[in-house]
Amino acid sequence: MYGTQSKRDLALELQAQIPFLRPSIHARRANITVKFQDLYGFTVEGNVDDVNVLNEVREKVREQGRVWWALEASKGANWYLQPQIASISEGIALKSSLKLSSLANAITLKKLIRKGIPPVLRPKVWFSLSGAAKKKSTVPESYYNDLTKAVEGKVTPATKQIDHDLPRTFPGHPWLDTPDGHATLRRVLVGYSFRDSDVGYCQGLNYVAALLLLVMKTEEDAFWMLAVLLENVLVNDCYTNNLSGCHVEQRVFKDLLVKQCPRIASHLEALDFDVSLVATEWFLCLFSKSLPSETTLRVWDVLFYEGAKVLFHVALAIFKVRFLLTLNS
């Protein structure tokens, strides 16, 4: 084959083939699959570059943690509660009695939360800022224990659906997918189904409650976080039988997509693609099935402080990122 080629021509031909015969370091790293557990016990799979990006993000979170600890040391452990200011994002109507230091605290807090609450502080900060602590304080201290005992053994359509969904909630998780994990999640879901019979139980709540259990320190705190989420944070009637609140969210999101991302909306319309096919799960599960747990909880950090509008912002961001990746591929 090479009889008529000079050594120089042969060398040039082989040199041209080297990129194909020997993939670049980046290409080889991209083909190496790495598996590990994240902070909340979920198995994460990706290539070496993915791991490096995750480590960079975690380092930024650690830096944020140092900022939080410094503020706790200088201003006190509960500095972010002094005093409470109703959602800064809605535009702050300052009262004459509001001190500038309180305003500074509120602005600092909003920036910090958007950059991520350190995992070790997350249970305390969520419970305080979301209103869960206040909600819990309005009932007797034994409320949750009394509720779980009162409903034990009772069978309803909601409890039947809960029992059906337990094994399907994050299968393979080292704690959630165990008898103890199933029993704990069941108590929270069944308890809430009796607390609010209008909601009862809706598929999607199992994933939300499961992630709350992994974050909060106690089962009871997870129950109150679920309660404040459904009763105060999210759009009304998102989880009722007819999902009317969820349907409203879908219409609002479609309008936002057309207004803020007209190119994407036109492209999807040309494909005859209904965004609700993906967005319904995003809003019902609050991204817990769609994003890595550490990313989901960063979204929830803002959700519990600024409200349900963050769900629309995140959904729009996902479409923008995927659209850009598609254009560049």
UniProtKB/TrEMBL annotation:
It comes from the Eukaryota. Residues 116-307 form the Rab-GAP TBC domain. This is Rab-GAP TBC domain-containing protein.
